[in-house]
Each structure stands twice: as structure tokens, then as C-alpha cells.
């Protein structure tokens, strides 16, 4: 069997060969996917599944925050503020059981994802 035929191997190879910009896009894709799943689970009343998906998305936001280069100028500070706002909104979403707040964060991250995708594409 081909060792690269599994989804895990394909994903691992994609990460290992991606540019820094592409990696950021992948992180956004993961966070957005988990938040969409959390939003649906919350609407269905699946509390455990909602929390699991939100924790995964929050871990990605934490990674984005931790890897910001604060010496890179004003854009880093703005991204930090957006990521911090997103984390706050997700905490509020969980407390208020508000899929609407999750959807708002999805919108913000989707906009950032599109901008990073353009940057990554221009770098290739």
C-alpha cells in the first residue's frame, strides 16, 4: 500500500511543503471548519460536541496569537486585537449559548482567510 494514500499522510505532506502564508490559510480553514461544526452543534443542543469543536478553534486562535511577530509593525497589533476579540466572542458565545456570536467570528476569520490566501498566492 502506498504510504501517501491515507488522508493523514496527505495532510502531513501538505503541511510540510506549505509556505508560511499557506500554513496560516490552513489554520484559518481549520478554525472556520471547527466553528461551523460548533455552531451547528450548538443549534442542535449538543453541548459536549459544541465545546469540543470550540476548544479546537480556540486552540488555533491561540496558535495564531502565539506566532504573531509583534516586531513586524502595525498589522501584527491589529491581528492581535482581532484574535483577542474573537476569543472573547467565543467565550461569550459559550456562556450565552449564542450561535450568532460564533457566526460573527466565522465571518471575521473568513475575511482574514481570504486576505491571507491572496498574500500566499502572490508569494508563489
Automatic annotation (TrEMBL):
Q: Where in the cell is it found?
A: Cytoplasm, Cytosol
Q: Where's it mainly located?
A: cytoplasm
Superkingdom of this protein's organism: Bacteria
A family per Pfam: FliS
Listed InterPro entries: FliS, FliS_sf
Q: Which PANTHER family match?
A: FLAGELLAR SECRETION CHAPERONE FLIS (PTHR34773:SF1)
What protein family does this chain belong to?
Answer: Belongs to the FliS family.
**What's the protein here called?**
Flagellar export chaperone FliS
| Gene (name only) | fliS
